[in-house]
Amino acid sequence: MYTTIVAAASESNHSLLVPEVPDLFWGSVGFIVVIVVFIRVALPRLNALLDARSKAIEGRIDEAKHAREEAEAVLERYQQQLADARTEAGRIREAARDDAKQIRAELVEQAQAEAARIVAGARTQIQSERDAAVQSLRAEVGSLALDLASAVVTEHLATDANAQAFVDRFLEDLRIEQSTQDATR
C-alpha cells in the first residue's frame, strides 16, 4: 500500500511547497475546528485561569499594601515612642542635674555651717584663753605691784642712783619672769 501511494505521488505533477486544493480545504477545515475548539473550550479555561491568577496577584498586592501600611504605622509608633523616650531621658537627665545641684548646694551649706560652728568654737576658746591670760596677768601685775611697793618701802631711795638701780633691777626681774613664762608655753 505504501508503495502505491508513493508511486501515485511520484506519477503526478505535485509540488511539495504548494498544497493541492483538497489538502488545502481539509487543512483549513481542520484548522478552523481546532481554532473553534480552542476558542470555545481552552480559551475560557485559560481566561478563567488568568483571571484567577490576576485576582490572586491583586489580592497579594492588596495584602502587601496593607502589610506595608501596618509596617509604616508600626514604624511611626516606634519612632514616636523613641522620640518620647529621648524626651523622657532628657527630662530625667535635667532632673538629675537639678538634684545634683541641690545636693551640692545643701552640702556646701552644711560645710559652711560646720565651718562657722568650728570658727565660733575656736573664737570662744580663744576668748576664754584670753580672758584666762588677762586674769593671770592681772594677778601677776598685782603681785608685782605689791612686790614693788614692799621693795620701795623697805629700801631706801634717797639717791637717784639707788632709785635708778632699783627700777633697773625690777625691770630685769620682769624680763626674766616673762622669758620663763614664754618658755613654759
Instruction: Give the uncertain stretches in residue-range form.
Output: none
What structural category do the secondary elements indicate?
A: mainly alpha
What do the pLDDT scores average to?
A: 84
Q: Give the distance, in angstroms, between the N- and C-terminal Cα atoms.
A: 158 Å
The coarse overall form would be rod-shaped
Sheet bearing the most strands, described?
none
Number of helices: 3
Listing every helix as H and every strand as E from the N terminus to the C terminus, the arrangement reads HHH
- Give the radius of gyration: 66 Å
Q: What is the total tally of β strands?
A: 0
- Tell me roughly what share of residues is in helical segments: over 70%
Strand proportion:
under 5%
What attributes does this structure have?
185 residues; mainly alpha; 3 helices
Characterization of the model:
The protein has helices at residues 2-11, 21-154, 160-184. The longest helix is centred in the middle third of the chain and has 134 residues, at 21-154. The model has no long low-confidence stretch (mean pLDDT 84). By secondary structure, it is mostly helical.
